[in-house]
Amino acid sequence: TQYDTERLARNGAGVYASSYAWMGLAGSISIEGNTFHGNIGLFGAGAFIMAYGQTGTGNISIVNNTVSANQGVGGDGAGIYAHAHAIEGNSGTINVVNNSFTDNLATTFNLNNEGKGAGLFAHTWSVDSGTSGAIDVSDNLFWKNRGMTGGGLYLEVGSASDHSVPESIRVRNNRMIGNIAERDGGGAWASSFLPYVARRSVA
């Protein structure tokens, strides 16, 4: 599937995919084998993906996609924005494998917190209890993406409670070439209580 109509939207100009469970467990989401090109929006101009569940969420899988020349205007994750959010229980994992993220641009209006992860923004969050899921980014290409923080990718695993435990971040066997950040992390920016970054090549 190809999404290249240069549409302007608030979130997910190319694709908006959501799994939502107000009183239960949100299901998994899989995005595979697509092309997202030239879309313009606020958050996740190419694709906006969110799993939100009261008692937990399923996993988010992003595999074998081509994500290029998308522009996030005043938001995060110009190429792809992926978020798994659990109120109680465990949030799912986010797995990003064998994709190409090229020439995506995330801009900001006021130089505060916008413009993170021009190629990819991925975030897992657990609020009251349980575990925020791991993020695994493997065998991808990040080339000439530009943002404020984390030009190629911005990854965050977090929690809002002492009873919630964050899982790890793994960035493995990726190529990061020519990415630019106005502030921190030209190739990648990762945040967790116990982040783990292995075998990463940054050029």
The helix content, as a percent range, equals under 10%
Q: In oligomeric terms, what are we looking at? A: single chain
Q: Choose one word for the global shape.
A: globular
Strand order of the largest sheet: 1-6-11-15-20-25-28
Which class best fits the helix and strand makeup?
A: mainly beta
Poorly predicted ranges: 1-5, 194-203
Radius of gyration from CA coordinates: 15 Å
Number of helices: 0
Q: Give the terminus-to-terminus CA distance.
A: 31 Å
Average predicted confidence as pLDDT: 81
Q: What share of residues are in beta strands?
A: over 45%
By DSSP, the count of extended strands is 28
Short recap of the structure:
The protein has 203 residues and is an all-beta fold. It is 0% helix and 52% strand.
How does this structure look, described?
The protein has a seven-stranded parallel sheet, with no helix packed on it. It has 203 residues and is mostly beta strands. It is globular and about 40 Å long. The N terminus and C terminus are likely disordered. The protein is 0% helix and 52% strand.
Explain the layout of strands and helices.
Blueprint: E1 2-3, E2 8-11, E3 15-21, E4 25-26, E5 29-32, E6 35-37, E7 40-43, E8 47-53, E9 56-57, E10 60-63, E11 66-68, E12 71-73, E13 80-86, E14 94-97, E15 100-102, E16 105-107, E17 120-126, E18 130-132, E19 135-138, E20 141-143, E21 146-147, E22 153-159, E23 164-166, E24 169-172, E25 175-177, E26 180-181, E27 188-191, E28 201-202
Parallel strand pairs: 1-6, 2-7, 3-8, 4-9, 5-10, 6-11, 7-12, 8-13, 10-14, 11-15, 12-16, 13-17, 14-19, 15-20, 17-22, 18-23, 19-24, 20-25, 21-26, 22-27, 25-28
